[in-house]
Design brief:
Layout (H helix, E strand, L loop, with lengths): L10 E3 L2 H13 L2 E7 L5 E7 L1 E3 L2 E7 L3 H8 L2 E8 L8 E12 L4 H8 L4 H4 L9 E15 L5 H6 L6 E5 L2
Parallel strand pairs: 1-9
Antiparallel strand pairs: 2-3, 2-6, 4-5, 5-8, 6-7, 7-8, 8-9
Amino acid sequence: MQTTMTNPAPVVDQDPQQVERVERAIRSKSFAVVSSVSEAGFPHAAGIVYDSVGVSLYVHTMRSSRKVRNITTNPRLGVVIPVRRLPVGPPFTVQFQATAQVLAMDDPEITRLIAEGELKNISGHGALEEPDGCFLRIEPTGRIHTYGIGVSTIGLIRDPLHAGARSVALS
């Protein structure tokens, strides 16, 4: 006897409070994992430190990095942001597909954001003096998917496989 397992589709939440919870989770964190794909089709995942402006992520990196080489041939990324809420168990997550753009260190957008103090997490520690340095702007596309964000702890305990998945549409 073969059993078929189906997962219900994530709830697409139009609740403005859920959208705000997701945006707040993105803004309150500074670490994510981005996944890119090389020209030859090989995946590459890397941990990054980011600053956010709204739901756009900004990353300082090196032009010679694998991330940048991959982005120049394929700007699409997968992004996962871990969001620790409980002291035990795995962190909740925010995940989305995105497009990335490589920006020069002296790009007017970057210099403006630095002057306004928006990129202080990623522009310190000598980053601005790196001769090979550049910035990435990562923009979510489509829906932002989450696990655990806006879900009660009791709901997760009762049904951890299904209760936690939610999606919000970007405006």
